[in-house]
Amino acid sequence: MKRLDILGVAGSGKTTLARISTESGKVRSQSAAAARGALRAININNSFSFKRRIMACIPCCRQPLLRNAIQAGEKNAFARFAEQHDAFLATVHESFALSGRSQYRRAEGYYHFLRTVRRIAFLEEWLEDETVLFDESLSQKVYAVMPWDRGNEAHARRYFEHMPLPTALIHLDADAAQVVRQLRERERATGKLIPGHRGLSDDELMTTTDTCLHFARIGAECLQARGCLVLSLTASEPPEQNARRVTEFIQGVAP
Q1: Conformational region of residue 13, where left means phi above 0, alpha means psi within -120 to 50, and beta covers everything else
Q2: From first to last of its 255 residues, what are the pLDDT tens digits of the chain?
Q3: Local structure of 168: helix, strand or coil
Q4: pTM given for the model
Q5: For residue 190, with 0-12 CB atoms within 10 Å meaning exposed, 13-18 middle and 19 or more buried, which class applies?
């Protein structure tokens, strides 16, 4: 599987960019890739009976079977991932151990990190010639595992120096003031903010956003130094224009 990570701060437009980019058909979304991987696992894996393979062709039976195949596949794939990338997981565990966050925030961050890792491990095992775009990427999970809310540059560098390399990285840079403005507009429209932004004043949110932008730049720098292809975009450009650049980039990565 060719894994394309999107890295950028919350509110910079990662999800919108991923949605428009996957509409071209040149790259699969995470959900579409998971369904395809589950079907392949059902058809190939000997643990699935002939009866279950037939049932997977029936629309009303397909979704429960796919969910079960994904859950079982993620569990087994993560065990193998942990053996191959123990140094990376040790770095992550150290960061969580040093965390000054509440137990709830620590558990929440760890849960989201593991969920992303399990999905990636599953897809890498069952998809061979697919190109998948991750907006909830392993690169993005640096924010979930930082030991303090304000973060620490040394920990960010260690994370990117040890993490399994993606095939390519799409770094969505942004202006902190623009991101804060978009976050506040979304909060007024939907009442939603990510947990780390709740209760912050505009000045505090600006500081946090600026720090997170800095970590994303560190990530792009570290991964490029390790040989990863990096496409740098700016959130101030129209999403459709950035999506066209992503499509052109993907054609170069996975012709």
Answers
A1: left
A2: 999 999 999 888 898 999 999 987 889 998 899 988 887 887 776 555 555 656 666 666 667 777 888 888 899 899 999 999 999 999 999 888 887 777 887 888 889 899 999 999 999 988 888 899 999 999 999 988 887 655 688 889 999 999 999 999 999 999 999 999 888 888 888 887 777 777 788 888 898 899 899 999 999 999 999 999 999 999 999 999 999 999 999 988 876
A3: strand
A4: 0.87
A5: exposed
